[in-house]
Specification:
Blueprint: E1 10-20, E2 23-34, E3 38-42, H1 49-57, E4 64-69, E5 72-73, H2 79-85, E6 87-90, H3 102-107, H4 122-127, H5 129-133, H6 144-157, E7 162-166, H7 174-190, E8 194-198, H8 202-208, E9 211-216, E10 219-225, H9 226-229
Parallel strand pairs: 3-8, 3-9, 6-7, 7-8
Antiparallel strand pairs: 1-2, 1-4, 4-5, 9-10
Length: 240
Amino acid sequence: MKSTWGAEGMLAVEDIELFYGAAQALRGVSLSAEEGKVTCVLGRNGVGKTSLLNAIAGHQPIAHGRISLAGKDITSVKAYDRARLGIGYVPQGRQIFPLLSVRENLETGYGMLRRKDRFVPEDVYELFPVLKDMLRRRGGDLSGGQQQQLAIARAMVTRPRLLILDEPTEGIQPSIIKDIGRAITYLRDNGNMAIVLVEQYFDFAKELADSFIVLDRGEVVASGDQAALAHTDIHRHLTV
């Protein structure tokens, strides 16, 4: 499908700050994501990576700064309206519906689609063929890796223009990590989707990222393009 974003087809996060009560989670964080590219957010546990994604998706309000999608200011837009504008979010821990079948989990993405678009795109099953074989199985009966595939597939059903992935390799067996990597590469190379990926597995991030930021204590401490990601100084911000 040809992109309709045009020259402004990107996410722009500008100098945002986020608080949980008196505790400040994000301090002047900026990030951009372009269609056809993967922007990777790196850092140790507890440095603000998930808070950043929640701010982008609208699950957590920001105290300062601006978030725009395709040139439109969405800073004050509610999460469900951001989803309708084309933000697909695969949260940490997958959060599928364990008592619903695989088919029903996929169909939960239909709510924001026009009636004529309420079907599962064929590339979902091409990327994750195991799901087609398990359509009647309950989501809770799938392995952790299969649940992660289902969570990504469910987001794909909504035809997102921006796909946000929070640590998709966490607790996943190596063979499925490779499948997820291939899926992200496929979605990036289609050229009509911007992808923001939070990841701790450095080799996985290095292979996929076109650009990156590294967070530490809620601040951006390093950023650059894919070539800069290979620099050894980045490792000190990732190791415990």
